[in-house]
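Putative peptidoglycan binding protein,Ykud domain-containing protein, pasting as requested.
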Amino acid sequence: MFARCASAKVFVLLIILLSTKPLLAMEHSEAALNSLLYQVQFVRLIKPSTQIEQDYRALTLGAMELKLARVQRIQSELEQFWASLGVPTNAMNLKGSDNLFQQVLSLEPISKDYLATSNKIRYLLWLEQKGDWSELVSNSWLKLGDKHNLVSEISRRLKGFGDLREYNPVNTLFDANVENGVRHFQQRHGLKLDGIIGPETLRWINIKPVKRAELLAINFINKTSYLASIEPSFLIINIPAFELELIDNGQVALQSRVIVGKPYRQTPLLSSRISNLVINPSWRVPRRLLTRDLLPKVREDGGYIRARNFNVFDSQGLLVSKTAQEWQDLAHGRFPYRLVQKPGKENTLGRYKFYFENKYSVYLHDTADKALFEESNRALSSGCIRIENVEGLANWMASNLVTDKQTWVDMQIERQKTQWFSLDQSLPVHLVYWTAWVDKLGVAQFRNDIYHKNSTLNSASAHLSP
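Structure tokens follow.
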């Protein structure tokens, strides 16, 4: 009796499995086609063409037979597209596979944030079709307690972008709910967190979902192709984000806010290697900074040189000493001297300097002006990068890379003596420029294009830079 029941159950289970096999195959085919569609969306945003439009329409509107008939050619186009931009995939590993689902998955970029970015792009393209995104104009700043007709439309957009929890379409009051939404929006756009809609916040609110999708797609490709070619341990500074990350064997070991170059004194994009760490550095003032920045201050106050602890040298390298009035007079004409600021608490470079070879004479360093790290726009330097968590970075290097650890320990109480430390092995450093990404929590982040490098969104090549 039991054997007959067991046999019957096995038979029924076999019938179920056989009947569901076509269904599973259909589901796999649909999943494969969806993956192709999402990849085609990337191409459509970055490199639009008549062919890609036809592929997009076929994958969205065509019958299953039409979609499947186009699969092989679309796969070939996508493989070439990702490869041409340096985006790694597993396509070569599954050349012989006859499983459509596996073939298509192998074409997807190898990146932890690909699916999150793809989903965000898909949502933004959907959002573009769901409302009016015409430009909003306000003649006044909007803040908590204000009543204004724009509040309702701004709230709708903040809700769509995921920054506002509750949305009342007839509400015109700038209440606490709206203020919280504005703050969240400002935070993920690198804006001043004041909860006020001024010109800069309104400018970002006016950026349409499709433009945001383009920014995410282009920056994803820039970032993914760049990271695919570098070592597992490195220091990276994203200039428009004003952020530094230290990656140790693929894991984030340290993060810090940074200050970068002003738009007219830009921090360059480059890759190099940090070879030396300097404690208590002196600062030899570059000639252009002397002319642009320091001499105007000396012309106002001849005592500036002494007050800021500068030594002055002539062309022969001899120390020169003059009165405050003499320095003030000399600053109005030709100034044939060079200035070197002695190490100490007031030194412009602060406590540490990290040297890496480059043709721009830029480096990473500490700063005596810590308050500037609280600014939302930290494009404030003359090209070098100032690090907020400089102590953490220096200590990590001392523990992991510094050769002479005993001297390092001995120097911790010294503030006037300069000491260079060579590293056991150099640390790769990368200065990059990415203005949009999806973070680890799945939140889309955007930053101001401080150096105007994203001006031509229609040309992918204009964005494919370090």
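Note for the archive: The two ends are 73 Å apart (CA to CA).
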